[in-house]
Design goal:
Elements: E1 2-4, E2 11-14, E3 18-24, E4 29-34, E5 38-47, E6 53-56, E7 64-65, E8 69-76, E9 79-83, E10 91-97, E11 103-106, E12 118-120, E13 125-130, E14 136-138, E15 148-166, E16 173-183, E17 187-195, E18 201-210, E19 213-226, E20 231-251
Antiparallel strand pairs: 1-2, 2-3, 3-10, 4-9, 5-8, 5-10, 6-7, 6-9, 8-11, 12-13, 13-14, 15-20, 16-19, 16-20, 17-18, 17-20
Length: about 250
Amino acid sequence: MVDQEREGKLWHEEGKYYTRLYLDMATARKWKRFDIAGDFIIVEQFNTSVEPKIRLNEKESPDISLKYIRQISSPFSRFYIYNDAGSSGENIVLLIGGEASFSAVGLRTVQVDQSKTYAWDGSNWKQVLCDSSGKIYVAGVPPWKGKEQVRAYNSAASASSLTIYTVPSGKTFYLTSITFGGNVADTLDLWAEVQTGETTYEKIAMIHVNNEWRIETGTFTMAIKGKSGYVVRIIGEDVFGSLRGIVTGWLE
């Protein structure tokens, strides 16, 4: 049996042991009442950017966040739902029914302190690390093993910027170090940056040049990721007499 409400976007189907309730999160609710009795509620599907909340039995009961609590066990004769309006297509699905005493189960997450995480390789304990792309590897077995290595150099005279490396088409570049410098008869800043979007860049290192040649090296334990066609470059506060740069990393 399917009971569909007048709004046409919120309905539930009755099964032998449970009711499945579909909630369209594009519709805002301010403690909307549902006369559905049961003993447990499970969040079967959570596809929304908003935080829906539920109150059991009475509208004045303490609210429970369905974003963080995905299973509730407690007898109830009705419940109330609150949510701000989300985007079109967002929804959650609740399973309601059963027999149980009260308990609530939160969303389980794991946070790893990589400085204290080790793996046994059969003879030694080795530290477990994670690079900036999210790849996990064991120290001594780096993610670039067997990959195409990159060492690129470029220079320019009388320039305020220098592109050291452009990521080849169809490839992803993982930057592990950069050495750059410049000379100028003035006091100016010089910085290195990685392209992160069509028109956006992230500064990764900077030096202050004061009437001299100045060189700086940055080494990144967590490799910095660059997409196909993006660049690694250095930018001066004004025109430098000379600019030079070297980058290293690997391609996938």
